[in-house]
């Protein structure tokens, strides 16, 4: 399409326009423009550049028809015959002096083309019956093409240059075909992400500041508008600059966004043949994430250096509030679980109500001179010769969980319990515990002793110290090198922390494409992970390995890992975890909500899950309504609210009762309703009796009893009761003990489904003990064993809910 | 009762500390002024390009004042550091007393056992807030500063943190982190150990910039607290700290690694002590 010859010819013609076109490639140079108001507003070269372009267009459109045709002829293919391949009329007498456009006579239609020799008329024959309006549209494109051509030559950054060149070709083609320009390729079409930046920032203002007084809130709204306006005119850093700065692998994704931004936002600013979109309306969080740190620094720097030019009232706003505003926004941009990016973000109605969106958008004039849209684009040519079509479909390295926070908010609204505390009261209490000052104060690194187990880990994740990625090997596509490195890291952590597992076995599973691993990354290195295998058809996931490297233990990482894994599975619709836990892991899994009580029917996992000798099968059922990574935080907040509510209630009911003394006198238990004042405080009887109900499901009972019996049998003091007493060892035993029982017999009875109620089971267990006490002297070794075993199994019975606590 | 009086005492000290800090600022602005004078005099001398006796006397006077000012500021700062140490020791006394009495403060409700994570945070905090020893010029660091061991006749005080060599359940000997309850009184259930089996932990950090001799050097054999545990293991110093707040980087003896040592791990100055025995096992 754009052969070198075709490009070469318009060059001399364009020279006179060069000055006004320089800015096309580099917005930072406001200098050298000779025309109009170009230089009057140095802070807004984007606008002036746009003005220059439209001025030029107006000028061209005012030409006489003949001159217009000549101009279009330059970009129109020769139609003399089918064999002529000439794609643009070239003036045989190129103008030599500059500034001749207006004076010079239009070339006559019979003038032959310098390249193919056919007359100009042959090139513009298709324009004969075209309306003036369409001619003008095409002329607009011609001006834009000329500008783009200059931009291609001026631009130093390879990536940007490519885009300019692509658009140059595109517009040329459109003039030839008289069509409308559409950017093709795999860039996708706007909007590229939802919710967009504008929505996110507005949500942020609502989320963080809706509790403020109207005046302060308005300040924040203004700041947000200013921020959005700045972003719309901000020049992004080039992909090569981004690569140098971030050293992360997401530079491919950034390049795609950068290209989109050039095509849809930046270039159309002064090139109105192309449809223009606002950056903040078509891009979302991902772009903001990649540009925020740099843009923030530049913005603040700009404001600092230009603070004298600001209006006094704006100065305080910008210099005092803006940095804080940006820091708070930063947390929401990089925070894993920020709700402001939820598609259906809604704010629980508070007394402050919604922040008025009707506030007038700050017009560019009202922030006069404040935002600067320039950025030094001193770029280095480097790397990549990738075309516009690359990089979009690259598999993302790790899937990041988005928290279904909207769900919990909705649920909170939907489920209203009868007689519940009115929402207004809760909101009021919320106000007293969310101290806005606390939010802005210095971050304390010293957590209180009562902080939740995963509090540190959660904070570290929010600050980007640690990261979580679900990764896995793949045989069908070439894995990213970084992922392979992480997998090796995981294999090392597992084999080091699980010395009893053969290293080859660990390697085999970690690199098996059916297994995935949730990796915990700190400083780019793997410090822990959970290897798992999902069985979507069976509705469960097997947890295969789980470890954190020894010097990073006891920091809550294990808990946070498991919580991330839970959220990942909720997203994928799997609600059961199964794992064979060895004796050291049982404690950990219990803390993570696992139990030995298996609810998944055996038929569903038998033959799927790897069975380990001497390990205990444990299960965890997930509740899709729980945001696990935030759970401890939510509970902490709920506790605070309830504490406040209790305090309020206490201040309302002034009567003070003397404390109960009956416990000191040896009473073990009293009915709740007999506590003086408890009814007056709002306590209602009932609702508690469900707990002791007999388990209906026989399979469930069977499983509980099986687990229980297994644990009792492994107790160190169970050895005397493992098998029936041998007559040879105690000849008179069966004369004294009328109902002998032992753990082996009990196991058989269990297998034969004899224990249809828990009562039968407990009775047999108790008999083991009473038989022993009956036959043996109380201070004998056997009786000591019986005592400890009895304590142990009553504890276990309580724990499994078979008897009341 | 005792607790209340400690509280008032601490409050008192804090006020004094506050005043001291204010005084420092005053002192600082005074020396600032003088330093500026010195600078100006030098500039003037530069322009006149000769050292007249007038300037010589003037400069001498100025430098003497500046030195006196700096010393005054220094002594106030030292005074403030002493106050902080006193407050810390009062807090420590109170903690020990509370523990003895079995009383818990409101801020930490009674828990039968402290969660391990919390204990680890406390240990890190204790390492972080270990005071830095700041000697006068020419003064060499005292025992229990950085790598300098306690004197041979040192008897650990109650509340001191030590590395203690104890027999574990399986009969193996292990160095564990311990706190001294009392000396030479046998207490029930607690370990009573001979003094040989105790290594007191440093009570000051050594400043690598001023007292590098009070730090273990590279490849020195030490006992270091393994991160996130309360056990000391033999390790080699990989790199000593460069700045006062830096940690040692050490290589733990670990047979599960091919070369017999773990990768470098960070351990605070507070938890690195000299390894006494050198016997092979």
UniProtKB/TrEMBL annotation, chain A:
The active site is at 542 (proton donor/acceptor). It is an enzyme of class 2 (transferase). Gene3D superfamilies: 3.40.630.30, Bromodomain-like. GO terms for biological process: bone morphogenesis; epigenetic regulation of gene expression; limb development; positive regulation of transcription by RNA polymerase II; regulation of bone development; regulation of cartilage development. Belongs to the acetyltransferase family. GCN5 subfamily. PANTHER family: GH11602P, HISTONE ACETYLTRANSFERASE KAT2A. SMART domains: BROMO (SM00297). Residues 713-783 form the Bromo domain. The keyword Methyltransferase does not apply. PROSITE patterns: BROMODOMAIN_1 (PS00633), BROMODOMAIN_2 (PS50014), GNAT (PS51186). It comes from Paramormyrops kingsleyae. This is Histone acetyltransferase. Residues 8-22 have a biased composition (Polar residues). It is found in: Cytoplasm, Cytoskeleton, Microtubule organizing center, Centrosome; Nucleus. Acetyl-CoA binds at residues 546-548, 553-559, 584-587. Keywords: Acyltransferase, Bromodomain, Cytoplasm, Cytoskeleton, Nucleus, Transcription, Transcription regulation, Transferase.
From TrEMBL, chain B:
It is found in: Nucleus. Residues 152-281 form the SGF29 C-terminal domain. Keywords: Coiled coil, Nucleus, Transcription, Transcription regulation. One of its GO terms (cellular component) is SAGA complex. Pfam families: SGF29_Tudor. InterPro entries: SGF29, SGF29_tudor-like_dom, Tudor_SGF29_rpt1, Tudor_SGF29_rpt2. Gene3D superfamilies: 2.30.30.140. Residues 14-41 form a coiled coil. CDD domains: Tudor_SGF29_rpt1, Tudor_SGF29_rpt2. The keyword Transport does not apply. This is SAGA complex associated factor 29. It comes from Paramormyrops kingsleyae.
């Amino acid at each position: 399409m754009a052969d070198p010859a075709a490009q070469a010819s318009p060059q001399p013609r364009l020279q006179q326009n060069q000055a006004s076109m320089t800015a096309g490639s580099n917005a930072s140079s406001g200098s050298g423009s000779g025309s109009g108001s170009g230089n009057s507003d140095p802070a807004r070269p984007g606008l002036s550049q746009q003005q220059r372009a439209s001025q030029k267009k107006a000028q061209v459109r005012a030409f006489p028809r003949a001159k217009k045709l000549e101009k279009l002829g330059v970009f129109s293919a020769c139609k003399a015959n089918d064999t002529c391949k000439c794609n643009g009329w070239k003036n045989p007498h190129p103008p030599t002096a500059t500034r001749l456009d207006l004076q010079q006579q239009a070339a006559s239609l019979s003038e032959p083309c310098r390249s193919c020799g056919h007359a100009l008329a042959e090139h513009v024959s298709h324009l004969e019956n075209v309306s003036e309006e369409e001619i003008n549209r095409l002329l607009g494109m011609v001006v834009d093409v000329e500008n783009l051509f200059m931009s291609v030559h001026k631009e130093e950054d390879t990536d940007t240059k490519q885009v300019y060149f692509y658009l140059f070709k595109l517009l040329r083609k459109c003039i030839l075909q008289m069509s409308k320009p559409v950017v093709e390729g795999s860039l996708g079409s706007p909007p590229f992400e939802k919710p967009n930046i504008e929505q996110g920032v507005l949500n942020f203002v609502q989320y963080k500041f809706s509790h403020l007084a109207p005046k302060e809130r308005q300040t924040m709204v203004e700041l947000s508008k200013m921020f959005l306006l700045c972003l719309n005119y901000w020049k992004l850093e080039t992909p090569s600059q981004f690569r140098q700065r971030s050293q992360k692998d997401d530079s491919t994704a950034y390049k795609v966004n950068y290209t989109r931004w050039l095509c849809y936002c930046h270039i159309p600013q002064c090139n109105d043949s192309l449809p223009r979109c606002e950056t903040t309306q078509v891009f979302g969080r991902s772009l903001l994430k990649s540009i925020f740190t740099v843009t923030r620094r530049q913005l603040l720097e700009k404001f600092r250096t230009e603070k004298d030019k600001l209006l006094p009232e704006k100065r305080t706003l910008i210099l005092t509030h803006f940095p804080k505003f940006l820091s708070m926004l930063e947390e929401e941009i990089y925070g894993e679980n920020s709700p402001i990016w939820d598609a259906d973000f809604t704010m629980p109605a508070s007394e402050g109500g919604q922040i008025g969106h009707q506030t007038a958008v700050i017009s560019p004039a009202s922030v006069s001179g404040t935002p600067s849209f320039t950025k030094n684009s001193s770029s280095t040519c480097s790397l990549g010769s990738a075309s516009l079509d690359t990089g979009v479909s690259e598999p993302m390295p790790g899937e990041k969980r988005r928290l279904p926070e909207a769900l919990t908010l909705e649920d909170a609204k939907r489920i209203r319990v009868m007689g519940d505390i009115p929402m207004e009261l809760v909101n009021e209490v919320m106000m007293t515990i969310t101290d806005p000052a606390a939010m802005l104060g210095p971050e304390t690194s010293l957590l209180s002793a009562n902080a939740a187990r995963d509090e540190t880990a959660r904070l570290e994740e929010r600050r980007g110290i640690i990261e979580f990625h679900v990764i896995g090997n793949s045989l069908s596509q070439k894995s990213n090198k970084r992922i392979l490195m992480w997998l090796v890291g995981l294999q090392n952590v597992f084999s080091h922390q699980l010395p009893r597992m053969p290293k080859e076995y660990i390697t085999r599973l970690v690199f098996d494409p059916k297994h995935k691993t949730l990796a915990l990354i700190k400083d780019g290195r793997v410090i822990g992970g959970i290897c798992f295998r999902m069985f979507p058809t069976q509705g469960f996931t097997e947890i295969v390995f789980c470890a954190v490297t020894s010097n990073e233990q006891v920091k809550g990482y294990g808990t946070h890992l498991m919580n991330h894994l839970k959220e990942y599975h909720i997203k994928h619709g799997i609600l059961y975890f199964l794992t064979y836990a060895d004796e050291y892991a049982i404690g950990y899994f219990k803390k993570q909500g696992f139990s030995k009580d298996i609810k998944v029917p055996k038929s569903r996992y038998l033959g799927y899950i790897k069975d380990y000798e001497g390990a205990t099968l444990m299960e965890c059922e997930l509740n899709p309504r729980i945001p696990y990574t935030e759970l401890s935080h939510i509970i902490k907040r709920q506790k605070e609210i309830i504490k406040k509510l209790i305090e309020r209630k206490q201040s309302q009911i002034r009567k003070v009762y003397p404390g109960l003394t009956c416990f000191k006198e040896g009473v073990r238990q009293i009915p709740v309703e007999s506590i003086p004042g408890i009814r007056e405080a709002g306590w209602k009887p009932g609702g508690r009796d469900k707990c002791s109900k007999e388990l209906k499901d026989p399979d469930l009972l069977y499983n509980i009893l099986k687990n229980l019996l297994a644990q009792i049998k492994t107790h160190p003091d169970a050895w005397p009761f493992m098998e029936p007493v041998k007559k040879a060892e105690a000849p008179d035993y069966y004369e004294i003990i009328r109902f002998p029982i032992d753990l082996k017999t009990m196991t058989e009875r269990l297998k034969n489904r004899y224990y249809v109620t828990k009562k039968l089971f407990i009775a047999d267990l108790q008999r083991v003990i009473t038989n022993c006490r009956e036959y043996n002297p109380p201070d004998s070794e056997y009786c000591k064993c019986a005592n400890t075993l009895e304590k142990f199994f009553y504890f276990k019975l309580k724990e499994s809910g078979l008897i009341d606590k | 009762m005792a607790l209340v009086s400690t509280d008032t005492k601490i409050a008192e000290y804090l006020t004094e500390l506050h005043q001291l800090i204010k005084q420092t600022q005053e002192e600082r602005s005074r020396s600032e002024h003088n330093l500026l004078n010195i600078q100006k005099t030098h500039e003037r001398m530069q322009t006149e390009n000769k050292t007249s006796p007038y300037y010589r006397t003037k400069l001498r006077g100025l430098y003497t004042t500046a030195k006196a000012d700096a010393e005054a500021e220094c002594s106030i700062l030292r005074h403030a550091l002493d106050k902080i140490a006193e407050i810390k020791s009062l807090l420590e006394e109170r903690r020990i007393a509370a523990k003895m009495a079995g009383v818990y403060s409101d801020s930490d409700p009674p828990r039968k056992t402290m969660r391990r994570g919390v204990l680890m945070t406390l240990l890190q905090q204790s390492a972080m807030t270990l005071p830095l020893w700041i000697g006068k010029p020419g003064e060499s660091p005292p025992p229990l500063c950085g790598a300098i061991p306690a004197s041979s006749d040192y008897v650990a005080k109650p509340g001191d943190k030590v590395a203690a060599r104890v027999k574990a359940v399986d009969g193996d000997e292990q160095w564990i982190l311990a706190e001294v309850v009392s000396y030479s009184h046998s207490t029930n259930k607690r370990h009573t150990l001979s003094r040989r089996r105790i290594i007191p932990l440093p009570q000051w950090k050594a400043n690598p910039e001023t007292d590098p001799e009070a730090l273990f050097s590279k490849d020195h054999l030490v006992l270091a607290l393994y991160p996130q545990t309360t056990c000391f293991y033999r390790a080699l110093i990989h790199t000593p700290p460069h700045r006062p707040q830096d940690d040692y980087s050490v290589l733990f003896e670990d047979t599960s690694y091919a070369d017999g040592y773990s990768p470098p791990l960070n351990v605070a100055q507070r938890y690195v002590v000299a390894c006494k025995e050198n016997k092979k096992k």
